């Protein structure tokens, strides 16, 4: 109740003091000018502007901060996904390198086996060719010997040079048969 009385007195007394005129001419100072009214009007205007604009501005900034937070979360999720993909790619790279080493080792072993097989086949072919060459040389030597003997026998002796009688022919044939 005391507050009500003070408020009532203030509402009646303050305008009376402010609006009371003094009837005399005096200099304009801060106390006797309309400065306080202008400050009061500006305060009321500022309070109305605050009342009307404060909630939308707050909502705008809250929404913007939420949007930024959401984008930050999305970026962090993408970053985590890219880190996971990088780790997966590194694991795949390690596996691929190991597989490449295995392939190179297998290829080397296969090359050794193939070269050994080719070498064995070449050795066998060389031995066979050498054998065939020896046989051919022996055959040619026999042919040359026969040809030489035939030419000597045919050219070197004539029927007149050999005196063969029947007893010699019979003995030669019997020796041949036996």
Fold and architecture overview:
- With 178 residues, the protein is mostly helical.
- The protein contains three helices and no strands.
- The protein has helices at 2-19, 35-156, 166-177.
- The radius of gyration is 66 Å and the shape is rod-shaped.
- The N and C termini lie far apart (172 Å).
Explain the layout of strands and helices.
Layout: H1 2-19, H2 35-156, H3 166-177
Structural class: mainly alpha
Number of helical regions: 3
Tell me the strand percentage band. under 5%
Instruction: Report helical residue fraction.
Output: over 70%
Q: What is the CA-based Rg, rounded?
A: 66 Å
Low-pLDDT windows of residues = none
Using the alpha-carbon principal axes, give the shape: rod-shaped
What is the string of helix and strand elements?
HHH
Q: How many angstroms separate the termini? A: 172 Å
Summed up:
The protein is an all-alpha fold and 178 residues long. The protein is 85% helix and 0% strand.
Q: Any descriptors?
A:
178 residues, mainly alpha, 3 helices, 0% strand, rod-shaped
């Amino acid at each position: 109740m005391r507050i009500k009385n003070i408020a009532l007195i203030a509402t009646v007394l303050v305008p009376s003091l402010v609006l009371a005129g003094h009837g005399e001419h005096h200099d304009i100072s801060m106390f006797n000018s309309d400065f306080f009214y202008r400050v009061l009007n500006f305060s009321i205007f500022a309070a109305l502007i605050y009342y009307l604009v404060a909630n939308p501005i707050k909502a705008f900034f809250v929404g913007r901060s939420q949007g930024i937070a959401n984008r930050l979360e999305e970026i962090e999720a993408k970053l985590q996904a890219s880190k996971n993909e990088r780790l997966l790619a590194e694991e795949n790279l390690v596996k691929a390198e190991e597989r490449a080493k295995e392939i190179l080792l297998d290829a080397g072993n296969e090359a050794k086996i193939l070269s050994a097989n080719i070498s064995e086949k070449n050795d066998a072919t060389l031995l066979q060719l050498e054998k065939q060459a020896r046989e051919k040389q022996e055959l040619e030597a026999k042919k040359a010997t026969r040809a030489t003997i035939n030419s000597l026998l045919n050219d070197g002796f004539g029927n007149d040079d050999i005196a063969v009688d029947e007893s010699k022919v019979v003995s030669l044939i019997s020796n041949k048969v036996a």
